[in-house]
């Protein structure tokens, strides 16, 4: 359990519909605590691994973006993914708030955390946690880990995975619909999905 004094919060959190305000430089190393519906896990981020990705992740956590985000893509022994806002207005504001790719310096091994991408220079708010050594597949795609889970990996392993891969390849959530309709769609159609209750930067 983290004591209140250890939590770093923005004095005046940026408005979530204004991505341009999420521009603070991240510390060289920082930890982010994720309290979920299955328990808590902690991510240790190293800015040297992927500076642009680390800065984006730091600002999203500190600004409160990930609160109530669902783990909408959970594939056993592969990965878990989150980062679509439950509020369609917030999600729409971030649609074009993409960042350039970082040069990959670490491999996508089990427990590493990486910003998701839909192609070159398209990273925005989504991230995934590798549940296995995915270096063979993801390193070739130049997906650059920003950090790793340093405690609570068993919680990540336990996140609900019954829906599998997303539509149209599987029976899980359709990302395009989730972006357009938010948690209303996910709660109605995929009620067993686990969620992030709150994410905070800790010392």
Our measurement of the CA-to-CA distance between the termini, rounded to an integer number of angstroms, reads 13 Å
Q: CATH superfamily, called what?
A: Cyclophilin-like
CATH topology: Cyclophilin
Low-confidence stretches: 1-11
- Mean pLDDT score, rounded? 93
Q: Report the CATH architecture.
A: Beta Barrel
Largest sheet: 9 strands, antiparallel
**Tally of DSSP β-strands:** 9
Radius of gyration: 16 Å
- The percent range for helix content is 10-25%
Q: What structural class should be given to the helix and strand makeup?
A: alpha+beta
Q: Your description of this structure?
A:
The N terminus is likely disordered. The two termini are 13 Å apart. With 203 residues, this protein is of the alpha+beta class. Strands 1-9-2-3-8-6-7-5-4 form a 9-stranded antiparallel β-sheet. The protein is globular. The protein has a single domain, classed as Beta Barrel (Cyclophilin), CATH 2.40.100. The chain is built from 6 helices and 9 strands, in the order βββαββαββαβαααβ.
Essential attributes:
203 residues, alpha+beta, Cyclophilin, nine-stranded antiparallel β-sheet, 23% strand, disordered N terminus
């Amino acid at each position: 359990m983290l004591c209140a004094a250890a939590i770093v919060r923005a004095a005046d959190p940026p408005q979530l519909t204004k991505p341009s305000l999420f521009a603070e430089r991240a510390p060289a190393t920082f930890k982010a605590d994720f309290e979920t519906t299955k328990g808590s896990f902690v991510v240790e981020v190293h800015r040297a691994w992927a500076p642009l990705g680390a800065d984006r992740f730091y600002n999203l956590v500190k600004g409160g973006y990930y609160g109530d985000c669902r783990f909408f893509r959970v594939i056993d022994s592969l990965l878990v993914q989150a980062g679509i806002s439950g509020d369609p207005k917030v999600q729409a504001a971030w649609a074009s708030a993409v960042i350039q790719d970082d040069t990959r310096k670490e491999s996508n091994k089990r427990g590493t955390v990486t910003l998701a991408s839909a192609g070159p220079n398209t990273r925005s708010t989504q991230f995934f946690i590798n549940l296995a050594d995915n270096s063979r597949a993801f390193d070739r795609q130049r997906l650059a880990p920003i950090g790793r889970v340093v405690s609570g990996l068993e919680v990540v392993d336990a996140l609900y995975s019954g829906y599998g891969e997303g539509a149209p390849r599987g029976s899980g959530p359709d990302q395009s619909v989730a972006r357009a309709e938010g948690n209303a769609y996910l709660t109605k159609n995929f009620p067993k999905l686990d969620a992030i209750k709150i994410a905070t930067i800790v010392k």
